[in-house]
Amino acid sequence: MNEIPNDLRYTRSHEWARLEQDGSVTVGISDHAQELLGDLVFVELPEVNQEIDVEEQCAVVESVKAASDIYTPVAGKIVAVNTALNDEPELVNHSPYEDGWLFKIQPSDLKTDMGELLTAEEYAKIVEAEE
Amino acid sequence: MLKKTPLNKKHLQANAKMIEFGGWKMPLHYGSQLVEHRQVRRESGVFDVSHMGVIDLTGQRVREFLRYLLANDIGRLKNPGKALYSCMLNEQGGVLDDLIVYFQDDNQFRLVVNAGPRDRDLAWITRQAKAYGGVRIRDRHDLSMLAIQGPQARTQVQPLLPANLSETAMTLEPFSACWNEEILVSRTGYTGEDGFEVILSPQKCADFWDGLLATGVKPIGLGARDTLRLEAGLKLYGTDMDEKHSPLEADLLWTVAWSPENRDFIGRNALQAQREKGGHQKMVGLVLVGKGVLRSNQTIYTENGVQGRITSGSFSPTLGVAIALARLPTDTYEQVTVVIRNKELPAQVVKPPFVRHGKACIELPLQFEEIENE
Fold first, then answer.
1. Fold agreement between B1-280 and B281-373
2. Which class is B1-280 in CATH?
3. What's the rounded Cα separation, in Å, for the pair A65 and B227?
4. Is B296 on the interface with A (CB under 8 A)?
5. Does A41 sit within 8 Å of B293, measured CB to CB?
6. Which of B33, B292, B341 is opposite residue A64, by nearest beta carbon?
7. Which of B15, B30, B293 would best serve as a mutation to test chain A binding (most A beta carbons within 10 A)?
8. What end-to-end distance do the CA atoms of chain B give, in Å?
9. What is the CA radius of gyration of chain B?
10. Positive or negative: CA dihedral B44, B47, B53, B55
């Protein structure tokens, strides 16, 4: 059974978003997504300061099995990327919600974008349907 | 309906992620393909390869028949117990399957073939054998098979072998086998590491599996089997080889026995014509310069714009870069361009194997560090 923390919001394409206290949003991929992909060997991250639109492809995670595009769940400016993943992409497998985060974004329209995202309960149903 | 090996329940108990392969339900990995890959390179691991087909051929004309059936020459096998890797070709020189043949005695040989083409192989062999009266073909679906591979594999297998084989097994040279009524042990494999393969009854196979796990040998899935064989430069039937391509187009020229010249084998004429004509495609190794993963079916361009294709590619856990086998136009190239997800990336042409006995066999492209630091 995959872990789906209650305090996060999710997309149908298996990204998660966490609103931080400083107003930024951290983005990663779900436990279910990392399990489907298998061992990650390569992560391509966006540039810091890059402006991205909602649902825009802005990163790639690649496993021994497949490459998968990552879409941002909220629009805004990239303020940080997880550079540890350059050397240790497997952090996404071991810790998808903590050490394996992908990037942080300063949202431009937080309220609208977050409102569109799925709750843990809604996302759990999608995962269940896929299994 | 997918076929299950006798170890199916044991795979599930070991938390395997199961997939379909060649009509069988097989373990892809038991948690992490990368960990399993490294486990085999550093220590040892056991693979359930019961999906492979075992075919016994017996009869007085079996030697004569196999010299006609196979592109490599079993006439080269002088002593019982020796094994040979060979392609089985059609009349056009296309590869129907690649297999290992074991010389057991003058009237008995054993073939180990791939799971996918197994039924087609049996039909083909049966048809070809008609001209060789008395050759008996037996599909040994009553047998199972394990591969135990890695630098420590043979030492770990030894205590589990029957007393009357244990000593002989440890003195086996590569590509040779010994057996008794219940088990065949060969020093063969598909990983580029030392090790054994054993062929035995399903019940004995399950006991053997349990025995290995109890001594600390780890189960390894097909995922790691694929990256291990790719690093070792070993071709996979159905992707690197098929009936539309000859051994010359799959870097398997070395497995074709041209001499003696008077040995007629299926596909010989077509192969000889292709060889004399030249200009056919060839298979090379590729190393990606920079980050990304090479995968089968990616398109390759040479500097003069000619196209090729990757037949199998992946990330090499041992080298930390992407590697591939690819089919290119016959000319030689040092560098090519690979199209990965709409981006054009340079790849170095190398001669496989990439890794053998845990060590790198190729020099990584010099530009690799530079590109990374840009």
1. no
2. alpha beta
3. 11
4. no
5. yes
6. B33
7. B293
8. 52
9. 21
10. positive
pLDDT digits (tens, 9 = 90+) for A81-93: 999 999 999 999 9
Q: Where are the domains of chain B?
A: 1-280, 281-373
So what's the architecture of B281-373 in CATH? Beta Barrel (2.40)
H or E element, residue B198: strand B195-200
In this predicted model, what pLDDT tens digit does every residue of B20-49 receive, in sequence order? 999 999 999 999 999 999 999 999 999 999
| Residue contact A39–B341, C-beta within 8 A | no
Helix axes B118-129, B62-69, angle to 10 degrees: 120
Distances (CA, A) of B287 to A51, B231, B284, B307, B361: 34, 11, 10, 17, 12
> What ipTM was assigned to the predicted interfaces of this complex?
0.86
Strand partners, A61: A43, A68
A64/B341 CB distance under 8 A? no
Is the domain defined by A10-130 classed in CATH 2.40.50.100? Answer: yes
What is the average pLDDT across B149-177? 97
Cis peptide before B329 (omega within 30 of 0): no
